[in-house]
Specification:
With 381 residues, the protein is mainly alpha-helical. The protein is built from 15 helices and seven strands. Helices cover 49% and strands 9% of the residues. Strands 1-2-3 form a three-stranded antiparallel beta sheet, covered by helices on one side.
């Protein structure tokens, strides 16, 4: 088998023989694939394609189904984080493949996509119940990305998912805690192991994975550095760097958070000495299990839900603490660029899209007491 790589304006065109000659015409089955990136990327792609032909796993593009392509794409999408890959796999197996999997990839049309949306919204959920427009939209984006890869490999002439808009999602006001509720939550959690975690989430807007990955070496006198996150997948727990450069950031701490962390460090040190674990080092986690191992982010969310019921707290998710922090910053009058940098969004446009209602004037009474302290800390970004 042979293959070649040709430079194009901003990509590389791969030409290779796809196995035996056509049984009808007797002509060689030549295929073409376009790769964007470096020549080394194209060489790797060519090697993989020839290996697939050699071991018999290559599929005739005219017979390739949506299910085969989507699954193959997810198997080889090394650029996806493990958690993202798991979510995409779940969407593919539950919402895409049962409805579109048997359609030949090259015969997929916009009408199929439109009908698929209708089916999902009517009966795409568990036990045939309606699926939310938001989840249907997530499934659409997974299919769109998979079809974009098919178009890049020239398995299809165009991405037909681009011709149909995903289902419209009605704007939802993000659940947050009011100033009174913040005081209530912290008062009721006093003495509970969740108290320092909830306090830090409210004071910084950090994500749960970032909180679970925080080390004492990341904490300074009046600020902390976000340099990694703890990810939980079916394979277990692993520390990973922020997915974008904006995730690496330094967050100024309000005075109340500084004092809380000092008290928490004293309590943690006493517990470690009692268990014979020794003194704290820079690499030790700020929040950990009794044996100093990492907290599970998923368990943290579950324990939060249990605490909400046990202490009769406002019915909000743990992630709502991050939303409450951001709403407090908006109420304090901070600009969107500063807020975006503080919470680690890729760009201010993301912040505006998520918190548009707050910037438009809603929730101006949100967490006023927190807003003052958070705003003081935010100026140290």
């Amino acid at each position: 088998m042979a293959g070649s790589i040709t430079r194009r304006s901003n990509s590389w065109r791969i030409k290779f023989e796809a196995g035996a000659r056509d049984p009808v015409t007797g002509k060689r089955q030549t295929r073409y694939v376009t790769v964007r990136g470096t020549k080394r990327d194209a060489q790797r792609e060519l090697t993989a394609l020839l290996a697939a032909v050699d071991n018999g796993t290559a599929v005739d593009p005219s017979r390739l189904t949506v299910a085969e392509h989507v699954r193959d794409w997810l198997r080889n999408a090394d650029h996806l984080a493990n958690k993202t890959r798991e979510r995409y796999l779940a969407l593919a197996e539950q919402q895409i493949i049962p409805h579109l999997g048997g359609v030949a990839l090259q015969k997929l049309r916009p009408a199929h996509i439109a009908d698929w949306h209708t089916t999902l919204l009517r009966s795409g959920g568990n036990d045939g119940r309606p699926l939310s427009a938001r989840t249907a939209g997530h499934a659409h984006r997974v299919l769109h990305t998979a079809l974009a890869r098919a178009a890049q490999l020239e398995l299809v002439g165009r991405n037909v998912a681009s011709a149909v808009r995903p289902p419209k999602v009605d704007a939802e006001e993000i659940a947050i805690l009011s100033a009174d509720q913040i005081g209530e939550v912290l008062a009721k959690l006093a003495g509970h192991w969740l108290y320092p975690i909830a306090s830090l989430a409210l004071a910084t807007g950090m994500r749960r994975g970032e909180i679970c990955a925080l080390r004492w070496g990341d904490v300074d006198a009046a600020s902390l550095r976000v340099e990694r996150s703890l990810e939980e997948t079916a394979a277990g727990l692993r520390f990973k760097p922020p997915k974008t450069r904006h995730g690496w950031r330094t967050i100024g701490l309000p005075a109340s958070a500084v004092e809380m962390l000092r008290a928490h460090r004293r309590d943690q040190l006493e517990q470690r000495l009692a268990l014979g674990l020794g003194r704290l080092n820079d690499d030790d986690l700020v929040f950990a299990r009794a044996d100093a191992s990492p907290l599970s982010p998923d368990n943290l969310s579950r324990d939060w839900r249990r605490a909400v019921l046990a202490f009769n707290l406002p019915r909000v998710s743990f992630h709502a603490l991050r939303h409450s922090h951001v709403s407090a910053l908006i109420a304090a009058g901070l600009d969107v660029v500063t807020i975006s940098r503080r919470i680690g969004h890729a760009n201010p446009a993301v912040t505006l899209s998520v918190y548009a209602h707050a910037f438009a004037g809603a929730n101006k009474d949100a967490a006023a007491a927190l807003a003052i302290e958070a705003a003081m800390g935010a100026n140290k970004v």
